[in-house]
Amino acid sequence: MAVTAGADALTAAEPPAGEGVTLDVRDLRMRYGTNDVLDGVSFTAQRGEVLALLGPNGAGKTTTIEILEGFRMRSGGQVAVLGADPATGDERWRARLGVVLQSWRDHSRWQVRELLAHLGSFYAPYSTERIRRPWDVDELIEAVGLTVHAGKKVGQLSGGQRRRVDVAIGIVGRPEVLFLDEPTAGFDPAARREFHDLVHRLADLDDTTILLTTHDLDEAEKLADRILILAGGRIIASGSADELSRRISIDAEVRWSRDGQRFVHSTSTATAFVRELFAQHGEDIADLEVRRASLEDTYMALVREFESGRADRAARAFEEVAAG
Amino acid sequence: MSPSVRPLLQAARSGLSRGRIELRQGFTHAETLWGYLFPTVVLLVVMFFLRGAKVPGTDFSLGAQTLPSTLGMTVAFGGLVSVASILTVEREDGTLLRAKATPNGMFGYLISKIILVAGMTMISVALLLVPGIFLFDGLMLNSLSAWLTLAWVLLLGMVATMPIGAVFGSLLSNPRNLGLIMLPIMGLIATSGIFYPITALPGWLQGLAQVFPIYWLGLGTRSALLPDAMAAVEIGDSWRHLETVLALGGWAVLGLALAPVVLRRMARRESGSSVAARREKALQRVT
């Protein structure tokens, strides 16, 4: 009895650690005039989960993320971020979010260290037993790989370095939910790799829920526990990269050479095909290569399938109108 | 301390330090330094050449009479134009959106801008006043009441103009439109008795000028630093302190009532995509 009461008091002070739904989006709708940008988007995310939102330009990725950030009003549906409606979220709620914005030329006269210390100071009153806010500035600068540039002015940094500052600003308050809109635009491969390590660290060690949009399918595959594909204002597929590629049957590609001649064959049963190949030709087979469908293949197939489906529906609607 | 007050106090402290940091950054920024020095030098040179001319009907130097007026004008210009231009520039470059993404960040941001603009205004006032003391005779610098009057006029002037400047800054869609408020303000300065006694102007222009804070700011700073006899060239032969307080106070009340509403409306519309859209537009103009 006493234990239950104690647990309740703890819940009131701060949400329980461990498992828990941090993002809960149901039937989200966004309409501009007569144009439905979002037409019933639903998904959830658990504490510590990394979600990647993929989709063609104009699919509504940024709109979705801005509604969740509380920067944009929705037309319909239910949204809960850390248990609160972003449309009415207060500053205490805001302190538990991280938003990585796109930079342009803001704060160009500020030194990196000075800026992070300044923005971090706003989070200090929201420090809790479990989460110490803000992030120690020097540790943060090291975590994003800016130690040698800490004393430089933001305006003197290269594009990739500026982007690291944006990421650092996004996480300076040790967010429980982090939104990243195309975080690695302008990163070189090394910076990209370091950023991926940072995201893993945030999700695994700090239990941060991360929702990111990207056009880099490799990145989505490496980072995300779950991939959501948004097209035409709906989520047309969701799952891990593996689950997605299993959902849609794309042939694997088998390449080999025999007697100096190269061969390519597409098959949905690659293992059986290769077994057959060896049974027939044995030692003659060389340079064998089996390429499973990549996330890119899966993504393209899903989007194409969706678009042709929409074309079919449009054609049917047209026929109905023509017949009627 | 109540749990909801501590974050606001922290944001106020952060805002103060932000204001100080940005004020300091101005001293190593060529454009800002130019903004301090250029108008000061031009005004001092103009007043220097006016020092031989007399205020009509008196034998008081027109240059010495203009110096206090320019202090009032500096306050009005800082409050109206600097605030508006900072808001539009920082809305376009995404600074405001960052403040919005930070808990109590907008509150801290506003505090910082009040500190920054007040600090810049005081620097500009000092840059005019200190050389002016050595260049002109006849100013009332030895009485405590002169300095006290100057202090309340400058303070009330800032409170009267900064919120109105914030309203302008929120309504202008981008920094290229600043001219829309610059031109009318220049016109008002010309007709507000800053560079020449307002009593020399036609009655309807005098009436118009008295609606706006620039005239009252100039009158207030003149009343602080000029000998009482100089009130003879003012409207009603008086420094009209009560009317000055009422006029500037009225603008302050109006501004403080309007600014929060307009600022909140502007802030609500800020999002990553609105900043991105403005960036696209601005870049199209560059190329």
From TrEMBL, chain A:
PROSITE patterns: ABC_TRANSPORTER_1 (PS00211), ABC_TRANSPORTER_2 (PS50893). InterPro entries: AAA+_ATPase, ABC_transporter-like_ATP-bd, ABC_transporter-like_CS, ABC_transporter_ATP-binding, P-loop_NTPase. One of its GO terms (molecular function) is ATP hydrolysis activity. This is ABC transporter ATP-binding protein. One of its GO terms (biological process) is response to antibiotic. Pfam families: ABC_tran (PF00005). Coiled coil: none annotated. One of its GO terms (cellular component) is plasma membrane. Transmembrane segments: none annotated. It is found in: Cell membrane. It is a peripheral membrane protein. Residues 23-257 form the ABC transporter domain. It comes from the Bacteria. Keywords: Antibiotic resistance, ATP-binding, Nucleotide-binding, Transport.
UniProtKB/TrEMBL annotation, chain B:
Keywords: Antibiotic resistance, Membrane, Transmembrane, Transmembrane helix. Pfam families: ABC2_membrane_3. Residues 30-266 form the ABC transmembrane type-2 domain. The chain crosses the membrane at residues 33-50, 70-89, 110-134, 146-171, 178-198, 245-263. It is found in: Membrane. The keyword Transmembrane helix applies. PANTHER family: NODULATION PROTEIN J. This is ABC transporter permease. It comes from Micromonospora zingiberis.
